[in-house]
């Protein structure tokens, strides 16, 4: 099996000069975490396999700021960089790639115009296209939904967009499968219910998606410990685990987590 990846995520608020990294709980209660390129450099030195930047305040005016962040980061960080937030066209993806990004992440624009996935994949290859899915659990059964039998009862998952501020009515598991058919090379799957809660990854959601697609799935939302990463790797086919708070606020270092995973039988790069 390919080595499982550990990926820090930097949620970037570009509404201040130079930008800053922030972290919230269930997409709310935002607090300051650091300077984007400084944190990225720190995580690179600790052994991060990749780094994800998400522009959570994306707009046309702030896009240039994110390009500057990626340029500064790529000068000293030599692992794949993924950039998302507000990318609505092949031209905007091109700007990110020219700045030093290896992958772009699309969410809202792809839900509104799914062919965007194919357009970027056709130009740059599907390995360069990550589809982010911010999924909210909906209890019960509903016709036309992919229903999962979770420990607390049946449920389905709904896609959100605009940074979790609006819901789409689109089934998240079905959308992941469609995104793969359209050319996505990877799924960044975030449980909105677990985001920032420290309750661990959403195993039913992650397992349901990773068992239905052949492309890599990055588990996101709720990680508080190496044990949570071990659990998601043991119980699902996720190829990577993403975390933010535990890295930003000094609770764990990436090397510590990797050593723990290796000691417990998970193939990771040390």
SSE string: EEEHEHEHEHHEEEEHEHEHEHH
Give the helix/strand class: alpha/beta
CATH-scheme architecture: Alpha-Beta Barrel
Number of helices: 10
Radius of gyration: 17 Å
Output the CATH topology. TIM Barrel
Q: Bin the strand percentage.
A: 25-35%
Helix content: 25-40%
Major β-sheet strand ordering = 1-4-5-6-7-11-12-13
CATH class: Alpha Beta
Number of strands: 13
Q: Segments where pLDDT lies below 50 for 5+ residues?
A: none
Query: CATH superfamily, called what?
Result: Aldolase class I
Largest sheet: 8 strands, parallel, barrel
Question: Could you give a short description of this structure?
Answer:
With 270 residues, the protein is α/β, with parallel strands linked by helices. Helix content is 34%, strand content 29%.
Write the layout of secondary structure elements.
Blueprint: E1 5-13, E2 20-25, E3 28-34, H1 36-46, E4 51-55, H2 63-74, E5 81-84, H3 90-99, E6 103-106, H4 108-112, H5 115-124, E7 129-139, E8 148-150, E9 153-161, E10 166-171, H6 172-182, E11 186-191, H7 203-210, E12 217-220, H8 226-235, E13 240-243, H9 245-248, H10 254-263
Parallel strand pairs: 1-4, 1-13, 4-5, 5-6, 6-7, 7-11, 11-12, 12-13
Antiparallel strand pairs: 1-2, 2-3, 7-9, 8-9, 9-10
Helix pairs in contact: 1-2, 8-10
């Amino acid at each position: 099996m390919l080595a499982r990846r550990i990926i820090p995520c930097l949620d970037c608020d570009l509404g201040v000069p130079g930008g800053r990294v922030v972290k919230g709980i269930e997409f709310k209660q935002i607090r300051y975490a650091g300077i984007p390129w400084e944190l990225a450099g720190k995580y690179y030195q600790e052994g991060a396999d990749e780094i994800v930047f998400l522009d959570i305040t994306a707009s046309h005016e702030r896009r240039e700021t994110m390009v500057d962040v990626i340029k500064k980061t790529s000068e000293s960080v030599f692992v794949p960089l993924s950039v998302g937030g507000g990318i609505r066209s092949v031209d905007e993806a091109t700007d990110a790639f020219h700045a030093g990004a290896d992958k772009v992440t699309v969410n809202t624009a792809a839900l509104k115009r799914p062919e965007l996935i194919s357009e970027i994949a056709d130009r740059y290859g599907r390995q360069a296209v990550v589809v982010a899915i911010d999924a909210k659990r909906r209890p019960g059964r509903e016709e036309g939904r992919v229903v999962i039998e979770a420990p607390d009862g049946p449920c389905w998952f709904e896609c959100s967009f605009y940074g979790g501020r609006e819901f789409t009515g689109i089934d998240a598991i079905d959308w992941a499968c469609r995104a793969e058919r359209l050319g996505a090379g990877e799924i960044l799957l975030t449980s909105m219910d677990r985001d920032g809660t420290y309750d661990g990854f959403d195993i039913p959601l992650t397992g349901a998606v990773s068992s239905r697609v052949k492309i890599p799935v990055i588990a996101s939302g709720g990680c508080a410990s190496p044990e949570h990463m071990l659990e998601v790797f043991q119980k699902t086919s996720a190829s990577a685990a993403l975390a933010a708070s535990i890295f930003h606020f000094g609770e764990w270092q990436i090397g510590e987590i990797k050593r723990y995973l290796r000691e417990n039988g998970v193939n990771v790069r040390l």
